[in-house]
């Protein structure tokens, strides 16, 4: 990581509170994006490859990294986790959930491993023309962290057309709300893995959010996904 990503804590907190996601501009350099894209062809780095069409997840493919993670990805995972822990714990407190996330990622992963969640979840996703990802949540076991991050490794309108990030929030007793985001190459987008707390007349309640990717019209779209909990 050429420059440690700087997360404006107040801005992130407010955006996650009100929208369930926040963009972090220029979290990666162009060189880092190119280097991460090249990792996709190094099969020895990955534990599995998923064909989305086979599992009706959409159209495209992604690969989960094996441990040990490449140094840049390990650094990003630890740095973003550390920045997001205070917000995660604030959300749990608001909702009255008896969970307190430890300050450092290795301690959180120890909790995952103690519950049988030992498989690493960082991944690179690749979409070609016609590719898309259906709305979903990335929860791989009993233990999960309430945020995850996606990094754009290619540039919209240059490397690919279409392929926007889509967020859909399921509002209680109302129609669902959708947001569409088109980050630039190198940008990160942090978003809720499952829900966000919303203040109602009787205190805080949960609204669930799913995410997906709209259809890629042309070109190739690569992203790095950082999920902080490991999988069962």
Please describe what this structure looks like.
By secondary structure, the protein is an alpha+beta fold. The chain has a single domain, classed as Jelly Rolls. 24% of the residues lie in helices and 34% in strands. The protein is built from four helices and 15 strands. Strands 1-11-7-15-5-4-2 form a seven-stranded antiparallel β-sheet. A hairpin with a 2-residue loop joins strand 12 and strand 13. The longest helix is centred in the middle third of the chain and has 25 residues. The radius of gyration is 17 Å and the shape is globular. The two termini are 29 Å apart. The mean pLDDT is 94.
List keywords for this structure.
alpha+beta, 4 helices, single chain, 232 residues, Jelly Rolls, 7-stranded antiparallel sheet
Beta percentage is 25-35%
Number of helices: 4
Helical percentage: 10-25%
Radius of gyration: 17 Å
**What would the CATH topology be?**
Jelly Rolls
Question: Topology of this structure?
Answer:
Elements: H1 9-19, E1 21-24, H2 30-39, E2 46-51, E3 58-59, E4 61-65, H3 71-95, H4 105-114, E5 123-127, E6 132-136, E7 147-152, E8 160-162, E9 165-170, E10 177-181, E11 188-192, E12 195-200, E13 203-213, E14 216-219, E15 221-227
Provide a brief overview of the structure.
The protein contains four helices and 15 strands. The chain is of the alpha+beta class. The mean pLDDT is 94.
